[in-house]
C-alpha cells in the first residue's frame, strides 16, 4: 500500500470514529429576523392561513425543479405570503430537510409575529403579511465573518474582489436558479471559493443591485477576513477558503489530482463550530474535534516518516540544518534524510498559527505523494511562545457578526464575540 493511500484510509477511519462520538445536532439558523410589522392572535384567520401555507412547503412540488418556493394564501388583510429558497448547488433531498427544519423552527423563534425570516447555510425561509413575492429587498443586511486575517490582506482582497464581481452577472442572469459559484487561487496551496445567489422571483437588474449592496457590506465587514457570509432578504453571498458548496454533477473534474472523497477533517470542525455557535458548553467539543484534526495531520506525517525510515535503503546524503533534529540512530541508519526533512517541513506547515495558511489534507497528501512539489516556508506555529491569538481559542476560526438596516435612518453595526451573543437571537431594531 502506498503512503497517500495509507494516509487516506487512516483519515477516513479517524473521521468515522469522530463522527461516531459526535452527535449530529440539527443545524442552527445563521440568522433569525422577527419583524416588527405586528402580531397575530392564536386561532385567528391569519394564524390559520399561515399554518396552512407553512405546512404546504415541505411537500411542495415546486421545490423539485428550481429549489424555490413562493406562494400566497388568503384575502387581505389576512393574506400570508411566503418564500423559500435553497442554496443553488443543493440536491432536492437536503433542501427539503432544511426547509422542513425552518418551518418547524420559524414560528417557535418568532411566536405570533406576522413577519419572520430565517437563514441557514443551506436554505432561507420568509413569510409576511405584505407582498414579498417578486419584490427586491436589499436594505436590511446581516454579515458574519471569520475573525482570522489572511496573511496578505491586500492580495487577498484583490483576489476576493475579482472573484465576487466576476460572479455577479452570471448569478443575476441565471434562469430558474439565480446562482453562481466559482474558485480563485490565493496562493499555490490556498484557494478561495465563493457563491452568490438571488431569489429567482426578482429581475436580472434587481438581482445585480442586491448583490452590489451585499458586496458593499462584505467590503465593510470582511476586509481581509478568510471567510464571510452576507445576506439580504433577496440575495446571499459567501466566500471561504474551503469548498463549502458542491460542484454540479456534470462539472469537469478538479484540476488537482485528489483522492476521491477527501475527508477534510478541518473543514468538518469548521462547520461544526459555526453551526454550534452560541451554546456555551459546545466550545469544548469543538476544541476537541479541531485538536483531533490537527493531531491526526501530525500523526499521519509522523507515521509516514516512520514507514519511510523502515523502507528506504542506504544512501549517505546528509541533509542540511533540519537534520540536527533527527535522532542520530535514524540519521546513521537511514539514507532518507531528505524525505524525513520534508515530512518535518510538512508537519510545520500543518501547525502554522494562521489557520488559513495551513495546507488542506488533500494538499498534504499531494505533497507527500509528489516530491517534486516545492513547499512554502512555514510561518510561526500556533503554540509559539509569543502568540498574538487569544490562548483560550488558539485554533478556532472565530466568527463575528454585523447587521445593517439601511431602510432606517441609522445604520447599526454590531461586533459580537463568541461569548457575548448568539447569532440566532440577535434582533436588530
Ligand atoms: C408582539 O409580541 C411580542 C411577544 O411575542 C411582543 O414582544 C411585542 O411587543 C408584540 N408587538 C406588538 C406590536 O404587539
Ligand atoms: C384555539 O382553538 C383550539 C381548538 O379549536 C382550542 O382548543 C384552543 O383553546 C384555542 N386557543 C385559543 C387561544 O383560543
Ligand atoms: C419534516 O419533519 C418532520 C419532523 O420534524 C417529519 O415528521 C416529516 O416527515 C418531515 N417532512 C419531510 C417532507 O421531510
Ligand atoms: C412564483 O414565482 C413564479 C415565477 O418565479 C411566478 O410565475 C408565480 O406566479 C409566483 N407565484 C405566486 C403565488 O406569486
Ligand atoms: C486582523 O487585522 C486587523 C487590521 O487589518 C487587526 O485590527 C486585527 O487585530 C487582526 N486580527 C487578527 C485576529 O489578527
Ligand atoms: C502582498 O501582496 C502584494 C501583491 O498582491 C505585494 O505587492 C505585497 O508586497 C505583499 N505584501 C506582503 C507583506 O507580502
Ligand atoms: C489555479 O492554480 C492551478 C494550479 O495550482 C491552475 O491550474 C489553475 O489554472 C489556476 N486557476 C486560476 C483561475 O488561475
Automatic annotation (TrEMBL):
Transmembrane feature ranges: 287-310
InterPro entries referenced in this protein's UniProt entry, alphabetically: GNK2, GNK2_sf
Gene3D superfamilies in UniProt: Gnk2 domain, C-X8-C-X2-C motif (3.30.430.20)
Biased amino acid composition, Low complexity: 400-413
Keywords, alphabetical: Membrane, Repeat, Signal, Transmembrane, Transmembrane helix
Keyword Repeat among UniProt keywords: yes
Start and end residues of each Gnk2-homologous domain: 28-132, 138-244
Signal sequence range: 1-23
Disordered: annotated segments: 399-429
Residues in coiled coil: none
Matches recorded under PANTHER family: CYSTEINE-RICH RECEPTOR-LIKE PROTEIN KINASE 25 ISOFORM X1, CYSTEINE-RICH REPEAT SECRETORY PROTEIN
The protein's name: Gnk2-homologous domain-containing protein
Amino acid at each position: 500500500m502506498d503512503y497517500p493511500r495509507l494516509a487516506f484510509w487512516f483519515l477516513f477511519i479517524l473521521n468515522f470514529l469522530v463522527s461516531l462520538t459526535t452527535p449530529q445536532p440539527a443545524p442552527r439558523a445563521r440568522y433569525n429576523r422577527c419583524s416588527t410589522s405586528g402580531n397575530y392572535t392564536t386561532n385567528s384567520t391569519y394564524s390559520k392561513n399561515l399554518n396552512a401555507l407553512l405546512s404546504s412547503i415541505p411537500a411542495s412540488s415546486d421545490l423539485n425543479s428550481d429549489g424555490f418556493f413562493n406562494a400566497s394564501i388568503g384575502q387581505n388583510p389576512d393574506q400570508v405570503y411566503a418564500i423559500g429558497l435553497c442554496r443553488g448547488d443543493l440536491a432536492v433531498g437536503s433542501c427539503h430537510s432544511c426547509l422542513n427544519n425552518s418551518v418547524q423552527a420559524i414560528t417557535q423563534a418568532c411566536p405570533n409575529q406576522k413577519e419572520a425570516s430565517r437563514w441557514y447555510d443551506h436554505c432561507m425561509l420568509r413569510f409576511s403579511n405584505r407582498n414579498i413575492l417578486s419584490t427586491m429587498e436589499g436594505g436590511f443586511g446581516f454579515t458574519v465573518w471569520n475573525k482570522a486575517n489572511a496573511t496578505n490582506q491586500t492580495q487577498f482582497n484583490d483576489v476576493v474582489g475579482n472573484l465576487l464581481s466576476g460572479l455577479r452577472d452570471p448569478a443575476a442572469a441565471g434562469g430558474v436558479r439565480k446562482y453562481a459559484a466559482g474558485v480563485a487561487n490565493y496562493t499555490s496551496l490556498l484557494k478561495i471559493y465563493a457563491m452568490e445567489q438571488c431569489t429567482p422571483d426578482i429581475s436580472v437588474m434587481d438581482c445585480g443591485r442586491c448583490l452590489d449592496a451585499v458586496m458593499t457590506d462584505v467590503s465593510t465587514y470582511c476586509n481581509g477576513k478568510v471567510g464571510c457570509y452576507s445576506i439580504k432578504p433577496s440575495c446571499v453571498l459567501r466566500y471561504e477558503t474551503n469548498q463549502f458548496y458542491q460542484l454540479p454533477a456534470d462539472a469537469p473534474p478538479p484540476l488537482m489530482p485528489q483522492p476521491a472523497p477527501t475527508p477534510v477533517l478541518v473543514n468538518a470542525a469548521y462547520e461544526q463550530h459555526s453551526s454550534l455557535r452560541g451554546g456555551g458548553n459546545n466550545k469544548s467539543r469543538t476544541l476537541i474535534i479541531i485538536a483531533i484534526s490537527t493531531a491526526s495531520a501530525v500523526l499521519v506525517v509522523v507515521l509516514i516518516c516512520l514507514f519511510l525510515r523502515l523502507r528506504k535503503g542506504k544512501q549517505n546524503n546528509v541533509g542540511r540544518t533540519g537534520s540536527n533534529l533527527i535522532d542520530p540512530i535514524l540519521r546513521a541508519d537511514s539514507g532518507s534524510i531528505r524525505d524525513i526533512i520534508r515530512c518535518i517541513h510538512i508537519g510545520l506547515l500543518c501547525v502554522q498559527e494562521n489557520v488559513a495558511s495551513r495546507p488542506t489534507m488533500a494538499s498534504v497528501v499531494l505533497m507527500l505523494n509528489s516530491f517534486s512539489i516545492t513547499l512554502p516556508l512555514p510561518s510561526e506555529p500556533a503554540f509559539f511562545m509569543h502568540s498574538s491569538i487569544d490562548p483560550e481559542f488558539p485554533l478556532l476560526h472565530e466568527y463575528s457578526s454585523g447587521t445593517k438596516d439601511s431602510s432606517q435612518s441609522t445604520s447599526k453595526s454590531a461586533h459580537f464575540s463568541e461569548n457575548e451573543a448568539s447569532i440566532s437571537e440577535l434582533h436588530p431594531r
